[in-house]
Amino acid sequence: MKNRLRVLRAERKWSQAELAERLGVSRQTVNAVETEKYEPSITLAFKMARLFEARIEDIFQPDDNSNPET
Amino acid sequence: MDKSTSTSVRDAILGYGSLIVWAICYLGALLLLREFQLQGWVRIAVALLPILPFALFLSMVLAQIRSLDELWRRIHLEALAIAFPLAILLLMILGLMELATGLSPNDWSYRHVWIFLPIFYAIGVVVSVRRYK
């Protein structure tokens, strides 16, 4: 799963720690999501979407080979 | 100090405090059972004494885990998933080595395994943290 979290955060000039605080998670979690080592829960994804005033699919995009219908 | 920091400090004090109380109770029970000629139900009561502080310690650990965010909960779950099979592996090897070489129970036996459990857990945490770093 790819995501645009780092780009969206950079646009708002937030540090990872700042974003983590706004989301109520640890900085490590933000870093792991940004580096695509960890896929957040749907609850956290919704929090991110709400925070960035975007849809979840605007932040997260499945990898080309991860579509279950193909 | 903000509210969340003071809550964390309080939780840490309660957590480590209950761990220290448990350790003192355990060592105290060990000393009493080894060095004093206690009789009957007193021996059993002393042997069961560390359960109470350990229950407190356990509740503190659970509260701590529940307060973690989702990544850290996963890290601790993976640490358990590593530590548990490692403990089984150690038990299996100890059993087989006992058959193969006749290990001295004073040096190596099942009652020494518990010492390795926190070490296995720590290994699990390190492995899992590195994965998400």
Defining key terms:
heterodimer; A: 70 residues; 434 Repressor (Amino-terminal Domain); two-stranded antiparallel ribbon; 5 helices; 6% strand; B: 83% helix; flat
Net shape of chain A: globular
Element pattern of chain A in H and E = EHHHHHE
Based on DSSP secondary structure assignment, what is the total number of beta strands of chain A? 2
Estimate what percentage of residues of chain A fall within beta strands: 5-15%
Q: What's the alpha carbon Rg of chain B, rounded to whole Å?
A: 19 Å
Question: Which chain pair shows the most residues in contact?
Answer: A-B, 12 and 9 residues
Strand content of chain B: under 5%
How would you explain this protein's 3D organization?
The complex is a heterodimer of chains A (70) and B (133). With 70 residues, chain A is mostly helical. Chain A has one domain: lambda repressor-like DNA-binding domains (434 Repressor (Amino-terminal Domain)), CATH 1.10.260.40. Helix content of chain A is 53%, strand content 6%. In chain A, strands 1-2 form a two-stranded antiparallel sheet. In chain A, helix 2 packs across helix 3. The mean pLDDT of chain A is 91. Chain B has 133 residues and is mainly α. Chain B has two domains: 67 residues; 66 residues. Chain B is built from five helices and no strands. In chain B, helix 1 packs antiparallel against helix 3 and helix 4 crosses helix 5. The longest helix of chain B is centred in the N-terminal third of the chain and has 33 residues. The radius of gyration of chain B is 19 Å and the shape is flat. Chains A and B meet through helix 3 of A and helix 4 of B.
Q: How would you sum up this structure in a few lines?
A:
With 70 residues, chain A is mainly alpha-helical. Chain A has helices spanning 5-11, 16-23, 27-34, 42-51, 56-59; strands at 2-3, 60-61. Chain A has a two-stranded antiparallel sheet.
